[in-house]
Each structure stands twice: as structure tokens, then as C-alpha cells.
Amino acid sequence: MKQNIKWLFFAGMLALTVGACTKYADPPPVFEDLSTGDSTQGGGRKVLLIGIDGGVGPAFKAIKPPAITELLKHSKYSFDGISETATTDAATWKSMVTGVSYELHGIRDSSFIYTPPSGTDEHKNIKTYPSFLNYLLTSSKGLLNTVTVSSWKSWLGTLLADSKKQIQTADDKQVKDSAVAQLKNGDPDLMVLEFSGLNQAGKQGAFSASDPGYKDAVTKIDGYIGEIMAALKARPEYNKKEDWLVIVVSNHGGSGNKYGGPTEAERNMFALYYNEQLTGYEIQSSKRTGVLLKGTSGNGLVNASIPNDNGLYSFGDKQNFTFEMKVKIPTNQGYGYTRFAGTQAPNGAQTDRGWYIMMAQKKWRGAVGNPLNNGWKETEDSPLEIADNKWHTLTTVVKMVGDKRYMQTFTDGLSSAPMEITEQGNLNSTAPLRLGYMFSNGAVDIPIYFSEIKMYNEALTEAEIKAGLCIADMAQHPKKDNLIGYWPANDGVGAGAVFKNKAPLGYDFKIQGDYAWSWVDDSPCAPFVTGQQLAPLLLRTQDVAAQIFYWLRVPVKTEWSLEGKEWLSQFDREFIR
């Protein structure tokens, strides 16, 4: 049956910029014209998402609950996934259903309403992050039958308010009973369940397999999952016309009987992605720590600099040098021409000589200048876009060729054309070497993870750059003796506000602002998984939405700003029939 959905809302409603408002709910949906849709849009693909609050991966691994253990035989799963830096129930669930991290959505308490930090301009546009249900509702899959079941009122009414059918229960048993009833008598295309009993057991005892109360709660919820799966598999068209992806995921772990903080134990999460056709495979997480540099001047700025390098990084008018770093920048429509590494005057004025690296919307450029010698020049744009939520290696080489000097940039080893900078002369700057946002006209917030930052007092060749892209041990690098700074930038929580220099020469980067060490989703350049030829993975809370969109064949739009990574397609040879 075809239906027309013509509900339209003015764009101004999306902005939610009413004067003097200090709390921001998610916007109402804007509906596309679905006149070409019908009631069978799902194409047989359906999703069951089972969320277990406070489920600790190592505890599940130790207890081996039978229903979950049975699911593992046809699942891609991990016992050591990573949740948010803020491990409250609200923060982690918000990340799960929006596909963005706590650092972006900012939701921490169970109202699920964003409250800007003190001092924020209350008239400023606040970006909100709707749930995957909102995006589905306003896509070509808007007719899908969505069901949510929970005892948590605001989870139902605020976080997942776009569900077509909401069932509020008194406890976990009623969540299970309602889910079984829906599978037996209803026709859900996407059903989301929230179980809270295990979380309560952890708070009353400990989030550990050795705690009797916690172990009993794991067994009880596992029994509920067994009953739900039995009802699912009893559907007449199960594994025939209906192709189900079952996701069982926890939102956070715990330390002792506590959670909410950023420790590794609290951030632990368990996740499995089940389909009848999948082969069981445990994903051994590849993870590292990092600090998200972000913000703008006077608005949550977090950046890093070397306050005094004693002239080590002053390269004059003839010195060769190479500056290299790996960066991960969220997908965006563009970041303007914001500068994010190098040297320049603190106020952004081009009255001081130096060099820097800048965005060119989704690409990047190198720039060099001396106001006393023919001003500033910029290289051509990079051959690749780098604002795609993936790691990229950016290399900037300054070298003398005869009596002329050039700057050349490389993106993942791919070169741009060299630019002559002889007339710019001396590049020594009074400004320190910086990472992160630098002020300039039109500059915008650009959240960046940095890694494997290197400075050489020599110009690397193109062959040397390509050979070193994935080198694991810098002691084996052919230009190791030319390193005058090496900052892996994965020092971890105990390191404090610093990116420590690991080279024989060099100085530490000092981090300024309200920084936080967090687990980064994947290694900037890690080997493929032996025998699988798959990119290394770190399963995260914000990845859930991306897998749901992939499974339901919903194209992800750039403006959704998803940080979650879709990885299930790496296994599509197993389930595409």
C-alpha cells in the first residue's frame, strides 16, 4: 500500500534558536516525500537491538551465559569494546542511538536535554543529534514499524520519542514479555529493548563475575534473551523472507560498584552482532588513547603547544625540515580554511612570519609566509579529502633545491605539486609550534585527534614518506637520526596534560583547556587481522547506529555528522545471498 507523507516543518524549527533558551531538546523531524514508498520498504531486513545496562564484557566471558554463548556461534562480537568518556546511562545511550560521541552531543543526565556550559552564548545555534529512529522516519524507510520497550520513562519519551510504538514496563521481566508478544503477534521491523536489572545488581554489589548478585542477574537476563530469540526464530518467515540482525550490546561497565567516570573498567562494553549466516568471530579490539583537540577561542578551546623550543623548530630561510602527523577529523560538509597546526601569531594576524597547516573545506593545504618578504603563500589543495572520520597521514616537506626553497605536501603518501617559497625568506616565528584550532577570520571548531607527530631536520623523499607510513618501530626508520621531535600522542590518563616527546631531541607538547584522555576507535595505521584481511576494529557505543543504517540499507547523510564507523560490510560475503 502506497502512502504519501507530506509533513513539512520550517528549517527554523530545526535550529532551535529561540532567544534566552538554555536547554535544547532534539528537533522535530522533517519528512521527505515518500510517495514512491510502500509498506514493504524493509526488503525483508529487520533489526532487534537489545541493550543491557551495565554489562561487563569480561564478566560475560567468564560466566558464559548459555543463550548469549549460543548467539556467539553466528556473531561478530567483542568483550572489550569501548563506551563513552562519560559513562552515565544517559550519555552512553545517547551515543548509541545518535552515532556520535559524548564530546559532541554533551548529554549526561537522564533528562536527555542538553544544557550548554556556563558562559555559553544562549543565542548561539546549538547543533542537536537526533536518534536513528528520527533519521529512519525522515528517510525512504519512513514506513518501517519501530517499537521500543523499557521501564525508563525518559528513554522512551525523550531519547527515542520517534518510535511508532512505545511500551513502558515495570521491570525487565515485562520488557521480555512485551518483546515476546510483539514477535509473536506483531510485525516489528526494528525493535529496541532496554534491560536495567544487571545495572542495579552491579550498583548493589559489584560489576564483576565474582559478585554473586551480579552473576545471578547475568543469568536472569540471559534467560530473557533466550526466550526472546526463541520467539524470534518461531516467526513463520524467520530466515526466509525475514533477514534479522540481532544486536546485543551493553552501554558501559563498572569499577567496583560505581560507574559514570572515564576509567577503562567503566568504559568497557560488550557487543555482539548476530545473523544466522554469520560465522562466529571474536573481534580483538585495537585501541589507543588520545585527546580530542577542539573548540574555538573563548568557547571550549582545547589545543596543544610547545611553550619554548629554544630555537629547535626555527628553520630560518634555508633549513630543510619535514613535519608529519596522523589526524582523524569528523565527517563534515567543510571546515572552511581553519588553521590547525604550525606556527603563527596567537591572534591569527599575518604580521608574524612562520608556517602552518590549514583546512580547505574537506581537504587541506600548507602555508608559509613572511610579511616582510612577499607575504603568505598556500599550496594547492590535497588530492584526498581528510574530513571523513578516518585516519590520514599529512606530511609537509620544506627543502632547498639548488638556491631555491620549496614546500610540498603529501596525503597518505600522495603528493601535491611543490610550491616555491624562496621569496618568503626567513620562517622563524615568535609563536610556538601548535596543534589544534588557531584563530583566523572565518575559523570554525574543528575536532581533531592527532597521532604519530614527527619533526625531522631533513627533507624526506617521497619514497621515504611512503615507506614510513605504517612503520611500527621508529628505531627502524631510515631517518631516525634526523628526528628532532616524536610525539605518539597516546600517553594515556596518567600522563596528564602533555604529549610526551619520545625522540632523543625535542620538547613536550603542553595541552591547554578542559582536555580528556579517551580511547580512540582504531590504530592510525595497524596491520590487517591475520587470516581475515580485515581492518582492525574497536567496537564502540556510537557504532550501533551505523550498523543499523547499513543493515536497513539507509544511506548516511553527511549532515548527520555520524562518528560511528560502519564495519559490518567487511563480512557481507557471509550473509549476502
TrEMBL record:
It holds the Pfam family Phosphodiest. Keywords: Lectin, Signal. Gene3D superfamilies: 2.60.120.200, Alkaline Phosphatase, subunit A (3.40.720.10). Residues 1-25 form the signal peptide. Coiled coil: none annotated. It comes from Niabella drilacis (strain DSM 25811 / CCM 8410 / CCUG 62505 / LMG 26954 / E90). GO terms for biological process: carbohydrate metabolic process. This is Concanavalin A-like lectin/glucanases superfamily protein. GO terms for molecular function: carbohydrate binding; hydrolase activity, hydrolyzing O-glycosyl compounds. SUPFAM superfamilies: Alkaline phosphatase-like, Concanavalin A-like lectins/glucanases.
